[in-house]
Structure formats: C-alpha cells, structure tokens
Specification:
Layout: H1 2-24, H2 27-43, H3 55-70, H4 74-84, H5 93-100, E1 103-104, E2 112-113
Antiparallel strand pairs: 1-2
C-alpha cells in the first residue's frame, strides 16, 4: 500500500511538471487548438452545403485568414476555411490591393494601409 501512494504522488508530480512545461513553451494552447480543430473537422457534415460567399465576404475572409496565418493561428485559420467555404488557395495580393484600394507595405507583407 505504501509504494502505491508514492507511485501515485510521483505520477501526479510528473503530470504537473509536464503541464507547466507545455504551458510555458506555448505548446499547451497549440495542442488544445489542434484538438478543437480536429473535433470540429470530425463533426463537420461534409454533405451540408455551404452558403455561397458574397464578393465582400470572400475579401473579408481573406484578410482575416491573412491575419490568422501571419500570427501563426493555423488551427483557427483551418476552422475558418472549413466553416466559411473559403478557397484553399489564397487570393492574389495584387487582386486584393486593387479590390480594396489599399497600398501594401512591402516590408511587412501582412500589414495593409488604407
């Protein structure tokens, strides 16, 4: 009985240290996001038709996706693509700048100025 208590304490300590380490390195949040994305993907009904994207929503979604990908929120971006029906291939940047009448900051490649 005594060894069992020591083993349980050791396992609890190991779990605690492992969780703390993953949180400090930012891995825990990534794992949770990945799990959410995988669950969403598994539950998503592929037979249910997506609403047709308007021209405006297509552009807005593209800007949101760029923001998410620039900040390395890849699982959030994957959920947005799946839910919205946004094309997998990003829109051409020249097309976006023309459509939005904006000037691109070539040094940032992600910041748009109006």
């Amino acid at each position: 009985y005594g060894n069992n208590v020591i083993t349980m304490a050791t396992i609890a300590e190991l779990k605690s240290v492992l969780k703390e380490s993953l949180e400090k390195r930012g891995v825990m949040g990534q794992l949770k996001a990945r799990i959410r994305a995988e669950i969403f993907s598994a539950l998503d009904d592929q037979n249910e038709p997506r609403p047709v994207l308007s021209h405006e929503n297509l552009l807005i979604n593209e800007l949101i996706l760029e923001y998410l990908e620039y900040n390395k929120y890849k699982y959030t971006a994957s959920v947005l693509k799946a839910e919205s029906g946004q094309p997998e291939v990003p829109l051409d940047r020249q097309f976006l700048t023309s459509e939005l009448n904006v000037v691109e900051d070539s040094s940032a490649r992600s910041v748009w100025y109006f």
